[in-house]
Amino acid sequence: MDAHTVGYGLIVLGVAMFILEAVVPGFFIAVPATILVILGAFALVTPDFALFTEWAPIIVLVTGIPATAVTIYLYRKMAPPTSVPHTRAADTMVGTTGLVTVPVTPDAPRGKVKIQNETWSAVTRGESIPAQEKVRVTAVEGVILVVERATS
After folding, report:
1. What is the pLDDT of the chain when averaged over all its residues?
2. 134-138: which pairs have CB atoms within 8 A and are 24 or more residues apart?
3. Domain boundary residue among 78, 104, 134?
4. 0.85 exceeded by the pTM?
């Protein structure tokens, strides 16, 4: 196989990987795609030197490291985080109020309560609470909230 065939093959594979990343984002294959395109171009420009010599590992490192750094930098510029991710532990929910979306019963945690755009399973110690009723969290049992009707 000659250097031109390898060069074109690497470029086609790199472009295909870029297209795949654009269609299904999140695979982070733009870094290897960038490296493949650069190595393919290098094989086309210098077919006599190319990637079939003892210089191949050095060529890969010299192109791969900067290509990786530039691609990661561009990723961060194109898609900065919109907000800081947060997690909410169930035990921090005591005292908060929410809205029942699925009726809450005292016998099983089939009920659902929406609190600050998060849906939690819930039970009650008193009478059943119908949907659309405002509730307050009084305790937590594992990841199940114990709720009561909120007093206005």
Report:
1. 85
2. 134/97, 134/98, 134/99, 134/100, 135/97, 135/98, 135/99, 135/100, 135/104, 136/95, 136/96, 136/97, 137/93, 137/94, 137/95, 137/96, 137/97, 137/98, 137/113, 138/94
3. 78
4. no
